[in-house]
Amino acid sequence: MSVITDLREFAHEIGLDLVGVASADSLPDAEEVMLKRIGDGLFGGLDWFTPARAQRACNPRLLLPSATSIISFGVPYLVEPPIDRPGPGVPQGRISRYAWGEDYHEVLREKIGSVVDFLKQRVSTDVRSRIFVDSGPLAERAFAARSAIGWFGKNTNIITRDFGSWLFLGEILVDIDLECDRPLKKTCGTCEVCLKSCPTGAILSPYTVDNRRCISYLTIELKGPIPRELRPLMGDRVFGCDACQEACPVNRKAQVRKRSLFGLLVDPFPDLIQLLMMSDEEYRTRFRASPVHRAKKRGLQRNAAVALGNCGDPSAVLPLVEALGNEEELVRGHAAWALGHLGGNRARKALEMHRSRQDSPYVLAEIEDALMVSGL
Ligand code: B12
Ligand code: SF4
Ligand code: SF4
User: Which of 40, 72, 100, 169 has the fewest C-beta atoms lying within 10 Å of its C-beta?
Assistant: First the structure.
């Protein structure tokens, strides 16, 4: 049997469902698109997304000079929620599906590492290789499309026939010649559902996402204050966003598994008040091993404050008042916004009291805006 047939079999055995192979030649079209997006400011906030990164992303031989092939992997993560979304009572947030389990960076890197070991045994110990799982510069989606893992959706996610777009990508760059798969011919056709379903209008046109408006960026990557005009549009999302994937008709037919490779570590619909009030220790215990830790404790509490502001539930007022005394000004500022958004006498009194005590210009501006905008 050929190397790649054996490799596919081995990959399937260890849970790497989709395997595709492409040449490691450069992708000049993708590089052009990336450079244009950077120039247009659509990667605003991601300072590491530089023209030099775009060049490396699309020219694999800048990452491994001897590379001839790329082996791409697609690993589904769609599982049923473990519990029904609770009804009215406690204000609940929502964590994006990709973050329900163990940190995929680690799980996939280890699995893909065993594929490299397999290749070395099967071909030669001299095989040179490099593994990528999200954190490296490689243009993972563009190479996944070239290696027939799936096709580009207009929301920019890679879609597959069996698992929709609910999958992670990972790759190995290698210096062995492997038989390449042919890119799929599938497209979105005339569908544009995801463009209309994006809560913040971040999908500016087919295949173009404005990072600065994407809730995934706002809740995970952005370390400072969330632009005020976008906060009401975030709803109950406290980590990531699935709206453009949930709306996609292809995803309705995606296989839903009982378990994924990543298990289930976090409550997909966390109690927002608990999130806002959690201690360092609680944060570590709950999120240490999950992708959620990327937001950091103060980022998650900032997001919880915004979601509480959006929940319309008066039970949120008291904990938000308490959060006006949080040690992090980021959390205090967003709690002020949330109180302004919820309104009411108690919120006004607390905001006025904290205005006179506040020594952070940022928090003061948030309090003044909250008092003014809400007419409190
Ligand atoms: C930066 C980044 C983000 C940023 C910016 C997103 C973006 N649009 O680029 C933010 C933080 C917003 C983000 C969000 C998410 N991300 Co992200 N992200 C990345 C990262 C690190 C780089 C992406 C990149 O290079 N973007 C550059 C832009 C220019 O690429 P692009 O948007 O894909 O653009 C291509 C298309 O537009 C295409 N194109 C342009 N015109 C046309 C025309 C036609 C006809 C066609 C067919 C194609 C086409 O060409 C462009 C260049 O290839 C990758 C990991 C990696 N190293 O690749 C993960 C990655 C893309 N993210 C991933 C995930 C899971 C997500 C989220 C779903 C997480 C969530 N639930 O919150 C969201 C999805 C948001 C969305 N709609 O894109 C997965 C995607 C898996 C998949 N099925 O596609 C990746 C691959 C990580 C991984 N290893 O699994 N992400
Ligand atoms: S992830 Fe959410 S905010 Fe980002 S493009 Fe999709 S729907 Fe819009
Ligand atoms: S919603 Fe429609 S346009 Fe958007 S990715 Fe899915 S099929 Fe493509």
Answer: 40
